[in-house]
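Protein modeling request. Please complete all fields; requests missing the sequence field cannot be processed.
Requester role: graduate student
Desired output: 3D structure, C-alpha cell encoding
Chains: 1
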Amino acid sequence: MEFCIIIRGPAGVGKTTIAKELARNLDADYFSFDEIMEANKLDTIVGDGIPSENFVKANEIVLDLIKNKDRVILDGCFYRKEQLDHLLHNIKAKVYIFTLNADIKECLERNKLRMNPLTDNDIEQVHYLVSKIKIGRIINTSGKSIKQIVSDVLNYITL
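Delivered output (159 residues):
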C-alpha cells in the first residue's frame, strides 16, 4: 500500500463528502466505517457509544478489504482510542490522519439535511467523544466549501 488517509470527526461534519471527493482526486479506494459497521451488525450503541471491541472487529474487516489496495481513504468517527491504536498498528503503509471539526450547532444543522438524520442527542454525544481525542491534522470545516477542505487536506499530503 502506498498510503492510507483516515478522515475522522463528529457526525455531521462532512467526513463522507470530503472522503469521497479525496478518493476521486487521488484515484483511491474509499471505505466507510459506518457502512461496514452497519452491514456487519457492529453498530449497536451500549452506554456512551459503540464498544471498542466492535470497532476493532470492523478494523479487521477493513484491513482484509484494503490489503491489496494502493491508495485508501477511510471515513469514520474514530472516537475510541483502542480502534485508532489497533488500526495504526496494523496498517503497513504511510498513514495520514485528518480530524474534521465544526461547531456542534453546525453539525446539528448539517445532520438535518441527511436522508436519515441522527437524533440531536446522538450528534451531541459523538461530537463530545470525537473531541476528546486530539490526533492528526485538525481542519475546521466551518464556512468552507468542499473544494477548500479538500485543498486543505491535499496540502498536507506528500505523494
